[in-house]
Every structure is written in C-alpha cells, then in structure tokens.
C-alpha cells in the first residue's frame, strides 16, 4: 500500500509576506533606474509610505528618490487586509524588508552569473545606488537597472536571506506625501476628477432604523441637470451634471421624502446603566488565580468609569468615485481595507468579486472605520444607474458626523485589594460595551450602511470584538500589565446595538487604560504613595519601567511644582500589551474649563525606522486624545443623532493644542512596532489624574467637561 509523500511545510515568513509570498507582488525593478513598490497598506496621513520606502531603500541600497510607492489596489499588489491597529511597519515593513533582502540577493546572483563569478562568495559584491561593485572597489560591474528583468522576481520568498542589521537603517527622510499637501497640489480623493465625470449624492435616513414611506421622485427628476434619481427600498440618491446641481437636487430629494421613525435610542445621559442592563455575551479575557499563600487585603477599593460614543470627526467628509460597466465596477476610495470593501460590494451589487477593482486614494482624515466604505457603496449604487459615467459622491458634514459608525460607549468597573505593605493583592476588571469591529469583508452579510436599506435588505449586524490574539476590541488592554498577585478581566459584549459602532482609533484600549490608570492613581492617593512609585513597585517589565522613568524625568516629576489651579498627572500602558510602551505626564490648568498646557511623552516602539514619523504619530494621537477627553461626545435624543455639525460636535481648536514633548527610546535590536495608537489611553488617564491633582475631584466619566466635573464634585 503506497502513501502519498509528505510535503514539507513552507517556511513561516515575516509579517504580511507569509500570506503574499510571491516577490513580484511587492516589487519591480526597472531599466529606467527606478523601483516600484506595491503594498496593501494605505497612507492615512500616518507617513507609512515614507517609512516603507525607507525600509526598501535600506535593504536594496538605493536612495528613496528612486523608489515609486504605488497606491494599494486590488488589481495589483498584496492583500494585507486592513490598515489598522498600528501594524503597518510591523507587518508590511517586516514583509518588505524580507522581500528586498531576497531581491538584492537575487540580483547579486544574476550579476555574478553574468560575469562568471558564480563560484565567488556573494559577500564580495556590494551595492551603491543600485550599482553592483566588488567590495572596496569603485568600478561598476553590473547594476540593478542593467539586469532589470521581471522574471527574476517571479518566485516565492524563501526566508533564507537575512535582512540587514539595524545599523544600516537611515532615519532622516522627509515625508513623501507632504510636499503635495502643503503646496495644494491635488492628492486627496476629494480633488480627483475623471473624464466624463458626473456627481452623485445620497439622502440617508434621518435616524437609525427609519423607513422610507413615500417620496416624489418626479419632482427631483424635473430639476435641471439631473441624470438619474434612484430609490431602492429606503436608499435614495441622485446623479447630476455638476456639483451645484446635484446638491440642489439632493436637498429637494430630502424635502420630498417621508420617513417613519421610532424612539429606539437609549438615554444619552445614563449610558453605563443602559450597557450594564442589556443582554450580554460574557467572556473571561484572562486571569491569574491566587497563590496558595495569598496575602490578605488590608484595604478594598472599587470604582466605575465610562466614556461616551465618539465620532471619527474626519476633517473632510467621506468621498468616493465609481465607474460601473455591465460586467465590471471600478471604485476609487480612501477605505482602510480595499479587499474587504470589495467583498462587501460584491454581495450588495450581486457581482463576482473579481469583476470589481478597488483603488486607494488618500482621504483627509481617517481614524478607524469611518464613512469611507459606506460612501463607496453609495457611489457604486448610483454609478450602476448611469453605466459608463464615473460618479463622484461626497457625503455632507451632517452625513459624516451622523451616519458613520461611532466608537463604542463603554463602562468599566474595577475592584482591588491592597495588603498592609501597599501592594495590590487582587484585581477585578469588568467592561461593558457593544462590539468594536464591524468592518466590511469579515462576514457573509455586508455591513455597509446602504445594505440594510435596500428593497431586498441585508440583515443588520451587531459589532463584534476581534479575538484578543488579534488585538481584541472592548477588552483591549483590559488585562493588566502590572505584577498583581491575582487578577481577572471579564468582557461583557452587549447584544443590542441601537447605535452603529465599529473600529475607532485604539478601540477599547482608550477607556480601559483610562480606567486602570485612574484607579491606580486613586489607590495611590488613598494610601499616600507617590503615583509613580506606586506603579513602579508593581511593574517588573523593564521597557515599561524605562518609559515611565523617562517621562517622569522629562517633566521633573520628583521635584514637580505647580501653581494654584494647576495639576500634574502620570499614566502608562503598553498598547494591546504587545505593542508600543508609552508613558505620559500631563500638566493642566483648571480654570473655567480644563486646559491641557503640556504633555511629556516617552515611547518605545522597538527598532525605529523614521524618528520624525514616530514623533509625528505620537503627537497626533496625543492631540486627538486631548480633544476626546475634554470635548467630544456624540449627542442624541431617543430618536436621532443630534451632533451633526462642528457646533454640536466640537473638537479641539488649534489655539487649544498643548505643547507636546516626545522622547523616543530606540531599540535597534528589537522588532519594530507601531506608534499610532499608543497614546490614547495614557494621555486620557494622565489628564484625568492631573485634574484630581488640581481640584481634588476624581472625574470617572468622560469627557472632562464642566458638567461632568461638577457632578463628580457633588457626588463626593
């Protein structure tokens, strides 16, 4: 009896390369002296194309000026899923580092073979600006450009070529995307035009679950320039010759539409009670059982914290272009996940996925799952009504603030016991929240906004939490990084979702870290222990201790002095417990309103690719968190979302931006990890702790508004 041979398992390759193993998916070298790089990660303003170009430059030994970073597209390039979770340098960067290391070796082998040097050790060959030379000699014997041949990279990566050591990495490169942006050259999708382009607008339901009961389509069709008016169930849209005419038609369409609405939303002012009263799916996130000789708690503490629903509040409303042909669809979008979007569009339009091409174009503002995917679906539906004409569809400000998925409201309850020596003996963390992920492409049922409004509607979905191994959702950072003798973390995902939620920057880490670091501060204050010392006595993680001590030193924590009405607070976390370490000291002024004067931040992202890029990400995340903590809260009554303008959903103004000082602790011997979401939890807690330092009032419910501070003071 014969048996089939057992084939060896392919090697595990780094990052996204493991699922996209062909070198030619990532890289092309051209005879004109340039290198084309394809990646599935997209530029969201975080500077990722620059960081990835630096990695390619370092491994191939060519200057960044020769590198052409191509926008992600389903027509070419690897499928790297969603650009999210601060994973781009970690996953795409490590993949490209390996791809380029192998490509360099392949081209050196080709040069050696051409020059009959095949028996010579390749280590004698060197590359300078794509020129291949004998090491130590200036004469060129070959070059990438002379050897350029696409067939050379039509092979799978082997994992057998080691990338360069960290010492070869360049760190001072100017952002590739900034010149266009500061000079006003068209770069964003909102600036994009195509030949024969027309304009579309959608009229969305005025409230979650509203049903269209009547509309006078003829009144809109009669307007000048209108090319098509579409009703598909409760989905309404219009296409016109130019933008002025389509906005006029959209307003008319909204005016003649009749909707049936219901009071289906919870009490905005009592969200923790609502969340804790819902049916839930409960799961133990993690636990450390008590030791046989567990210490007896001499003090017990408990407290509850919360955050409201948060909007993405992208500066520019979502926008997309779509061109529909009888057998194909092409979409230009600022989606964070082009392959995922393609999968959902195929379901909504009942088309094969391979008939749809999605191309990424930068948008102005993206902090998670905002309206980018939804507007692409709106554009595709309207493009189908005018085949052969590219349709550009932009949401209104009201659409962007009222219809995009929100960051989920959360409630956290903490309990702790402390022994007579001032050490935490037991810790209980419970979090209630809707799910934090409802991105396209992860279910057999599409989750795009229009999908549930069609004549043949798709079932409404409830947001999920990704597995903790993939970063988690509501439970992200609920597991303590500190050395508690006993701990338990539990997540309660609510099974009702009256308001649509999905991924917003840092997901559950923002509220969980806010709660943990505020609670530690409360315990330290009650015991009369310095907050920094209290953290350090419970933290053995050397890199965590290093960022805490660095931030404290930057802010002169040990000799800190504040004037009347000012306060300082400290906080720390490691994002997802697997990402960047970040510690923050905040200085606030507690006048009529809380004003954050300065933030000192120390961060460890492992091997640094571009120091300026890391600092940019840390600063941006910190400033956004200040806005969340001081100002932001989605407003709604029992029927409608009310915060659909900058007046009703204010964000931080330029005049309110604090000074931010960042210290990056480079670890060239460690792998690179992302920086984009490391600050959101620690900054929130540091500000809240500084408010307590200034006012003696512990505010446990975000935002730190005058109303919430007053309520906290009265409760005490």
TrEMBL record:
Pfam families: MoCoBD_1, MoCoBD_2. Residues 183-263 form the Aldehyde oxidase/xanthine dehydrogenase a/b hammerhead domain. SUPFAM superfamilies: Molybdenum cofactor-binding domain. Transmembrane segments: none annotated. PANTHER family: ALDEHYDE DEHYDROGENASE, BLL3820 PROTEIN. This is Molybdopterin cofactor-binding domain-containing protein. It comes from Polaromonas aquatica. The lineage of its organism: Bacteria, Pseudomonadati, Pseudomonadota, Betaproteobacteria, Burkholderiales.
